[in-house]
Each structure stands twice: as structure tokens, then as C-alpha cells.
């Protein structure tokens, strides 16, 4: 139980740093556009989770195809790449500053990494 508590504390610390970086990238340069990254990284794990639930509704048969799971992984990868490319595009067009882009990308990756780590550490074990 102590390892679980340490894991939750470490993940919440990393998540707070990620949110702090994204909020500072918006607040320091008085521009709200880097906050879009938070939405993309929070939504990114959802297609993978939904498609993995829809892929095999029957526990007794493993004959279902992996097309739905692959589609969920594709959408998740698209959203993660969009979380990196969108601040780069905004910085290239001059809508945000370069340091805001860097802070937004690093903070977004920390947020997404925390979400994925949380789901890996606290995954339910299947019982047969």
C-alpha cells in the first residue's frame, strides 16, 4: 500500500509540473492559445480506451479483429502528434512566442505521460 501512495504522490507532482508549465506558457506571454495543448493531451487516451473496450465484448471468444484497436491507436497517435505540432505551428505563424511553444510542448508531454503512467500502474488485473 505504501508503494501505491508513493506512486500517486509522484504522478501528481509530475502532473502539477506539467500543468504549471502550460499555464505559465500562457500567462507569461499573455496569450491563451498554448492552453489548447491541455485539451489535446487530456483527450488523447480516450480513443485508445474506447476502442479497446469495443474490440472484444465477449470474454469467451478471441476471434474478433484488431481493426478497432488499431484505429484507436491511430487516433491516439494523431492527438499526441497534434499536441506537439500545434504549438510549433502557432509559433511558426507568430501567434505565440518560441519559449511559450517549448514550455507548452514539455508541459503537454508531462501531462500525457502522467495519464498513461497512471493507467499502467493502476490497471485492474483480469481474473479467470
TrEMBL record:
GO terms for cellular component: late endosome; Vps55/Vps68 complex. It comes from the Eukaryota. It is found in: Membrane. Keywords: Membrane, Transmembrane, Transmembrane helix. One of its GO terms (biological process) is late endosome to vacuole transport via multivesicular body sorting pathway. This is Vacuolar protein sorting 55. It comes from Penicilliopsis zonata CBS 506.65. Its main location: membrane. InterPro entries: Vps55/LEPROT (IPR007262). Belongs to the OB-RGRP/VPS55 family. The keyword Aminoacyl-tRNA synthetase does not apply. The chain crosses the membrane at residues 7-26, 32-50, 71-92, 98-122.
